[in-house]
Each structure stands twice: as C-alpha cells, then as structure tokens.
Amino acid sequence: MRTLVIGTVLLGAGLVALATGVLPGEAALALVDRVWPVLTFVVAVTVVTELAAGAGLFRAVGAGVARRARGRTLLLWGGVVALAVVCTVFLSLDTTAVLLTPVVLAVALHAGLDARPFALVTVWLANAASMLLPVSNLTNLLAEHHVGGIREFVALTWAPALACVVVPVAAVALLHRRELRGRYTVADDEPPAEDPVLLRWSAGVVVALLVGLVSGAPVWIPATVAAVVLLVVTAWRRPRALTPGLVPWPLVVFASGLFLAAEALQEAGLRALLQQDLAGGGPWTVAAAGALGANLVNNLPAYLVLEPTAAHDPLLLVALLVGVNAGPLVTPWASLATLLWHRALVRAGVDVSWRRYVLLGLVVAPLTVAAGVGALVLTS
C-alpha cells in the first residue's frame, strides 16, 4: 500500500511538472518511448512467476533442492545460493524477493534449521546477483540500449556479476559457519501437486521463457508470450486463480512515478549539476555515487539521476550499475526487493532485525561494490 501511495505522489508531481513546462513534452514522450518496454516486461514476468508459484513450481523446486542435499545443511544452503542466483539473473531480483524467499524459508524451517543464513543470502543475492543480464534488474533494462545488445551487455557485466555474487556468499558462509554445519532430516513424504498438468505446463513455460530472455529478442516479447500462454492454460485448469492482483499495480505506479519525477528533476537542472560534480570521475567515483544514492533514496531513482553522467561510456555505465545494483545492502529502502523480502520474513516468523541488517550491510556493501568495480576494471 505504501508503494502505491508513494508512486501516486511521485506520478502526480511529475504530471504537475509536465503541465507547468518544467518537464518539456518532447522529453516526456521520449521517456514513454523508452520505458514502456520495461514496464511491459515487469508486468508480464510478474504474471508468469505468480501463476507458476500458484501452480506449485517454486515449492517443487525447493523440495527438489532439499532432497538432493541429502540431509547436509551446507549442501542445502549451497543449493539455495544457486537457486537465488538463477532466479535473480533470469527472473529479476523482485521475483527472488517475492516468490523465492517464502520457499527458502519454508524449506529451512521444515528441515528444523536456523533460517537466518538462508534468508540473508537470499536478499543479498537478490540485489548483488542482478548484474549479469538486462532482465535481472530494472536498472539494467534502462541501461541496455546505451551498451548495445545483450551480448555486448554480458561481455561487460560477467566479471563484476561474478565478483558481486562471491562476496556476499562468502560473508554469509563466514558469519553463519556454525549454523551451516551438521545435518537435517530429509522429508520422505512430499505432498503431491494439486494439479500436475498445470505444474508441468508452468515448468515448460518458465524454461522456454529463460531461453527466450537470452535469445537476443527484446525481453518484453518472450515475457509477454509466456504470460499469455500461462494465462490461457490457467484459465483452462484453474480459472479462479486469474485475478486483477496478478498485475503488480503498486509496482507499476511506483516505477512510473519514479521515472517521471526523476526526468523532471533532471530537466530542472539536476543533470547539469551532477555532470559538473562528477565531471572526470572514473568507475570508482561513479559506482560510489550510485551506491550512496541507492542507500540514501532508492536504487531506481539513483540510477535515473546519475545515468546522464555515465551514459557516454559503457565502462562508467556498468560501474554505475554495480553501485546501484550491488550497493543497496545497507538501508531497508535501498531497493524494493529488500522491503518485499522483509515482509516475507515477518509472515514466516523469522527474525532478522533491521539493526543487524544495517550493520552487516555497512561492511558487506562496500566490499561487494569494490569487488565488482575491481573486476570490471581488470577485465575491460
């Protein structure tokens, strides 16, 4: 509800700027042309993941990971790490926060394990692992056209993406080394899926979507096709699951408001001010500014405001992505995914205090950003 309210306020402010001429009409039309594929992708992939989760796909995958770990806690945690990375890279950080977090918590609690190392690595990877593909993060989708196609994007991001995964994983493994030792009891009787046909269709659609997202086609196209197919199948098998709530209205309004408000601020003079302040700044400066801005405000407006200072150089642009993607590990509001993750923790009764989260983030976030920028500089 807060997301919807804040988004409505930002959207209203942007429309006022448009009506008063602070935001020129040409700039607003250019913004719409740029962001409609992004928002279309967000809506489509959310519909796919919500329907797939309702069909039991994520529960089935989580149960499969638990069985294959064969009672070894560290191996189960490693499976969660791999699952969080794959989910974030291919289905976005918000998908990991909203749909994977409850599954991870349920698996850990069902096995009688301390859920904190599983919860912490999930949220850190939901942010830090969102570097590799354009679809991994809204900021990447906005940056992609400055870099070229998906191949050019991956060629620049693979090394910082890997570095940004290694640091938080190593940090959680060190912090919770005692809790990750030992074994747990593997459940022998997993409940069957409510509708095996719908589950199989969901799995097939998601696999096809993953292939489509790395095919080089505009990502909104395979996402929209996957959403339509799964909507049709669900209407056939489980029509009651089709509700207006499948569309992430609060997120759409929030993102639209941020886009419009940030563009208005830049047209009002913020772009020139930042270009002057960051003139001549290298990858380290840009990444630091991105991480600081993300933790002070939020990663999306931080990217939008800083993008003009880095868009002319792909190296600087990826450094900015390192800052706004891997840097938001300190404050709760630094990314929407973090707030969504914490809501899932509260629902599951898992206690990870914001105080502990902030203190750990003050150490891990700078190390992660530094590792990402270092890898970028070394491989460029």
UniProtKB/TrEMBL annotation:
Ranges annotated as spanning the membrane: 35-62, 74-91, 97-113, 118-135, 155-176, 219-236, 248-266, 286-306, 315-337, 357-378
Subcellular location: Cell membrane
Annotated Citrate transporter-like domain residues: 8-311
Keywords, ordered alphabetically: Arsenical resistance, Cell membrane, Membrane, Transmembrane, Transmembrane helix, Transport
InterPro entries per UniProt: Arsenical_pump_ArsB, Cit_transptr-like_dom
Topology versus the membrane: Multi-pass membrane protein
Chief place of localization: membrane
Family to which this protein belongs: Belongs to the ArsB family. Belongs to the CitM (TC 2.A.11) transporter family.
Protein's name in the database: Na+/H+ antiporter NhaD/arsenite permease-like protein
